[in-house]
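A quick aside before the break. I want you to see a complete sequence-to-structure record at least once, exactly as it would be stored in a machine-readable document. Don't worry about memorizing anything.
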Amino acid sequence: MVELLTVAFWKSLTLKYGVYALAFNAFIEAIFFPIPPDVLLITLCSVNPERSFFYALVTTIFSTLGGVVGYYLGYLGGKPLAKKFFGKEKVNRVHRLYESYESLIILLAGFTPLPYKVFTITSGVLFASLWKLIVFSLLGRGIRFFAEASLFYFFGTQISTSITKNLNLISLAFGILLAIAFLIYRRYRKGVLP
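That is the input. The structure line, written in tokens, reads:
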């Protein structure tokens, strides 16, 4: 069982089954699986850089579909458990706070190295908007995976080591910039900024 969770095992599986292993990993990672699809995406992109955008598209779609399943797990079973453990008032307070920033939260969760599954299930627990989850997951996950794929497409396999070593840092930095831009835009729309 431990072997199934190793990155090396998943890389070898990806090399054997290609895009099918990538789609499966992207789907289950958004629900419960600990290994992010970036590992498999990078593996395939380093083998076939010319197909990098196709791999990014597959990863984005299946990760978002897995996110919808995670949402429904939270929606159908998570809220009663949350109310039982934390109390109805606390859950409602967190729901109101989450509702104010759900678009930003989902966008950042899709892009940053934070566990995406936590946010998909939490969105269901807090009865967040499913369409916002889908739209902002496609945006956040798409930006992340297409950015990775672009590096391979334009720079080839020699960039593989740099991406693997710095992926989380790059994603986090870009996520922070994205959050700042989103907050500025939101304040501008409300008329707070000139």
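Two observations worth writing down. The first helix runs from residue 7 to 17. The chain is about 80% helix and 0% strand. We'll return to this after the break.
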